[in-house]
Amino acid sequence: MTESLVMPRKMLRATLIATVLTLPAAALALPDGEGRELVEGACASCHGVNLIERSSGNSREDGGYLASTMIGRLDPETGEVRLVVSPRERSRPYGLKVAADGTIWVSCNGANCLLRVDPETMEVTEIPLPETGTTVRRLDVDEDGIIWWANSGLGRLGRYDPETSDIQEWVSPSGPRSHPYAIAVFDGAVRY
Predict the structure, then answer these.
(1) Nearest alpha-carbon partner for 103 in 88, 128, 121
(2) For 100-136, what is each residue's pLDDT tens digit?
(3) pLDDT tens per residue across span 127-186
(4) What is the tally of structural domains in the chain?
(5) Is the Cβ–Cβ distance between 137 and 107 less than 8 Å?
(6) What is the dihedral of CA 40, 43, 49, 51, to 10 degrees?
(7) Reduced to 3 states, what is the DSSP secondary structure of residue 13?
C-alpha cells in the first residue's frame, strides 16, 4: 500500500511565504533601467527602497503598506514624479476624479475617508466618512461639485458637499452585501 503525503493548504502557503522571505535581497531588487532611477529618486525621499524591493515580506505593522497611502503626479513632458502621502494611515487611495474647479478627489479603499488634493501644491486633506467599515473604490463629481461614491464595504451610496461639508449615505436597495463597485453621475442621475 502506497501512502500519499498531502500538505494542508495553510501549511503550503506558509512554506511558500517563508521561502520567498528567505530569498537574498538581490533576487528581489528593482530591475536596472530608467524606471529604477525614477522610483529610487521619488521613493527614497521619504522611505527606504527596501520597502518596495521586499514589500511582499512586510506586514502592515512593518510599514509595508506605506506605498499604498501615496498619491502621485507625473509630468509627461519632463518625466518628473511628485508623490505625497495621505494623512490617513492605510487609506489605500484608489479612484480619482477632477472637479470643474480643478480639485482632485480621491477615494479611500482602506479607510473610511475621501481625500481632497490641491492640484498646485499637492496638499492632501482628509474628509472622514462616518461609517466604520466604509471602503470607497470609485467616486464621481456632479455638475454642482457634489462628490458621490459607492461604499462597497457596506453596500451604501454616499454624497459629500464640499461647500457645506454635509455627508449623506443611503443603503443600496440590494442590501449591505451588494458591494457596489462603480458610480457615475450623468444626465441628471446617479448610476452605480
Answers:
(1) 121
(2) 999 999 999 999 999 999 999 999 999 999 999 999 9
(3) 999 999 999 989 999 999 999 999 999 999 999 999 999 999 999 888 888 888 889 999
(4) 1
(5) yes
(6) -150
(7) helix
Find the CATH number of the domain harbouring 186: 2.130.10.10
Estimate to the nearest angstrom the gap between the alpha carbon of 159 and the chain centroid.
19
Question: Looking at the domain assignment, is residue 14 inside a domain?
Answer: no
C-alpha cell, 141? 463629481
Determine, yes or no, domain membership for 58: no
Q: Identify whether 99 is part of a domain.
A: yes
Alpha carbon of 75 to those of 18, 64, 82, 83: distances in Å? Answer: 40, 27, 9, 12
- The rounded distance, in Å, linking the Cα atoms of 100 and 78 is 25
Bridge partner list, 74: 81
Contact in structure between 126 and 86 (CB atoms under 8 Å)? yes
DSSP 20-81: HHTS-GGGGSPPSSHHHHHHHHHHTTTS-THHHHTGGG--TTTTTTGGGGEEEEE-TTT--E
Residue whose entry in the numeric block shows the C-alpha cell 506558509: 14
Note whether residue 3 is domain-resident: no
Determine the residue type at 86.
Answer: S
Range of the domain at 135: 87-192
Q: Which residue's entry shows cell 509627461?
A: 76
pTM, two decimals, is 0.69
